[in-house]
Amino acid sequence: MLTRDQAADIFDRIRKLSTADEVEVLFSGGRFALTRFANNTIHQNVADENHMVSARTVFGGRTARASTNKFDDDSLRRVVESSEALAKVQHPDPDLLPMPDSREAAGSADEGVRATRVPARHFVETAAITPQFRADGVKKIVDVAQKHKLTTAGIFSSSESVEGIFNSRGLSDWHRQTLAEVSITMLGADSSGWQKTNSPDVTKLDPLSLAEAAAKKALDSARPAEVPAGKYTVILEPAAVLDIVGFMFWDYSGTAILDERSFLSGRIGSQLFGENITVLDDFTHPLQTGSPFDGEGMRRLQVPLVENGVVKRVVYARGTAARMRNSEYNNKVGPIEATGHGFVLPNETGEMPLNIVFAAPQNPQTLDQMIASTERGVLVTRLWYIREVDPYEKIVTGMTRDGTFLVENGRVRQGLRNFRFNQSLIHMLSKVEAMSVPLRSSGEESFDMVVPAMKVRDFNFTEVTKF
């Protein structure tokens, strides 16, 4: 693994090779290993170790970047020459700011808003995972499938990674992280079940329990019935929640407001969702992952995005905040400051919140309690193939998958054929009747979040599928 001291040495070598006004070097990479299984057997085991260095140079407002994974002198010279040659032929960017120094990157927000300490995200046990350890986990999963006469497929992966940034104005920062992940699909003759989870700490994963939960969904949804499409009370498990709500967080961006492509345009400060919805971007949350700095090295802020249904603010990169202050929107978007959410420069996207945390409700309910209080509804394990239909009303379409059930008189009655839905996220988050305690959740359509299960009324299913 590349160390911070080694990275600092590489940066010094690059800086000496460059004639640019400013130099920034990003480091990323690490070890990744994956054990893949299907048809109740392991069929692939791969491992990779790679580290990248990405050099950005600046000449009078012109900037460009070049990358390499070789750290010898000739390779570093070539990457500097490539970056500088590209930068010199760019048009000057009037919005490009000088690179931040360490003082600016640290920020000046109040202690109550700015995070001062990152929870442990590197665990020796996770870094030490071997192929045999993953194979033993897969065996537990396969044993469950065979016990229930099901077929299973999925992955067990592990990684150890680093991120670092150094620039010619004295800024330097470094982050180490581990991550282990298990994803399981259980297949029956006419049904399926699914579970997925990950954590920096492998001791938090339990492949056996995940396998039993996935198998139960496949067994309970066998011989699915068909009920007509329409508006139903739905109980969305956390994976289903994150996959659908994830489609709105690209809009919580100053760049999206300036580009007039955000559904929040003209709505910041208004009551958009139900009063029981509060959402933060909080990288310090113990169930979150990721580095404490953004693509320019700015320290991340804890940002209240929604409070009791009222949209409070969006996140900013440094340059976006400067542009917003000089725009026609400067008195319509709430607080404007660099929040440490910028992507690596140069880019056209700007920034977005990546550490979404839904606040716990005042009276959380378990999934069983939500089911028990439902006269007639649909329980949804996960959603997939989600696409946007109406950007401003945030209407998305997609399908249920891997465990959809009819709920009647407070009980799960039977499996259902899957549905296609067309649903406004604004309306959905205005009709949440109950929520569980939020937990770290993983899906397939969006990034990991800390989200609750939700009971939502009038969820709009538009048609029934054939499976």
Explain this structure to me?
There is one protein chain. This protein is an alpha+beta fold. Helix content is 22%, strand content 35%. It has helices at residues 4-17, 73-88, 102-106, 124-127, 131-147, 207-220, 238-245, 254-258, 318-325, 367-372, 425-428; strands at 22-38, 41-59, 62-68, 151-167, 172-187, 192-199, 230-236, 279-281, 303-307, 310-311, 356-358, 376-390, 395-408, 411-415, 419-424, 432-435, 439-441, 449-451, 454-464. Strands 3-2-1-4-5-6 form a 6-stranded antiparallel sheet. β1 and β2 (41-59) form a beta hairpin. α1 crosses α2 and α5 (131-147) packs parallel to α6 (207-220). It starts with a helix and ends with a strand.
Oligomerization status of the protein chains: single chain
**Structural class by helix and strand composition:** alpha+beta
Total helix count?
Answer: 11
Strand order of the largest sheet: 3-2-1-4-5-6
Question: What fraction, in percent, of the residue positions are helical?
Answer: 10-25%
Shape: globular
* Poorly predicted sequence stretches spanning 5 or more consecutive residues: 109-116
Q: Main β-sheet, in a few words?
A: 6 strands, antiparallel
Mean pLDDT metric: 96
User: How much strand?
Assistant: 35-45%
Question: Distance between the terminal alpha carbons, to the nearest Å?
Answer: 46 Å
What is the β-strand count? 19
Computed Rg: 24 Å
Helix-strand topology string: HEEEHHHHEEEHEHHEEEHEHEEEEHEEEE
